[in-house]
C-alpha cells in the first residue's frame, strides 16, 4: 500500500492532520515509525513531518528543564546543563540510534525499550501535546496510562525537574548487550533530601509492567527516612508490589521480579 508523506511548516498543522487521519503517524527520528513501515504495518497510510524549530528547542536554565519532542539523545549528551540526563541518553542504542532517536518518540517506545522515559517518570515530567482538543499539558504518568489513545496527538515537548544535586537522581539499565541492548529492567530514582531525610521520593521502573510505572510501595518505604541500609532494604523488599512484568527473549517475568530488588538496592547504595 502506498504511503503519503506530508511535511508542514509548524506543529499545529501537523497536529491537525494527526487528529483527523487515523492512518497518520508522526515521523521524528524514525526509529519507531520506519521500523513499523519496514515490517509491513498496513495501518500507517500517512507519514507526517513538521519543520518547526520549537520541537528541537532546549530550555535548561531553571529548576525545571524543557526538551522539545524532536531533541535527540545525541544533543542531550552534548549539553553540559543536562549532565543528569546523560546516563539515560547514553543507554539508548548505539551512536546511530542516539543521533536519530528523539525524546518525544521514546515516550511511545514499547518494552523492552523506552528507557529515557523511565528517567522522565522519576523526574516528575509533564508532556505537552497538541491535537484536535487544542494544546494541553499532561502529567507523564497519565500520558503513559493512556498512551495507546495518544496516537492522534502530537507531542510538543517534555519538561521535568532538575535534580538539586548529583546524588539526588540515579539511573540504572540492566541489559544483555551493552550499551545498545533492549532492557531486562530499567530503574530511575529521584530522592530529594530535606533536613537529612528523603522528601518526595520517586522510583520509576521499565520492563516491569506493560508501560513504565512508578514503584509506589518502594517510594513509601523511602519517604521521610534517612537513606541508610535499613531504609534501602525496606525499599528493595517492596519494589515488586504492583508490578506485572512479562516474559520475553531477554528474561522471564519470574527473573525480573527476582532481580529488580537487587538492582534497586545497588542503585540506592551507589554501587556500580
TrEMBL record:
Query: Domain FAD-binding PCMH-type spans what residues?
Result: 1-167
Xref: SUPFAM superfamilies? CO dehydrogenase flavoprotein C-terminal domain-like, FAD-binding/transporter-associated domain-like
Which keywords accompany this UniProt record? FAD, Flavoprotein, Oxidoreductase
Q: Does Ligase count among this protein's keywords?
A: no
Matching SMART domains: CO_deh_flav_C
Q: Which GO terms describe its molecular function?
A: FAD binding; oxidoreductase activity
Alphabetical list of PANTHER family matching this protein: XANTHINE DEHYDROGENASE SUBUNIT C-RELATED
Protein's name in the database: Oxidoreductase
Species whose genome carries this gene: Bradyrhizobium centrolobii
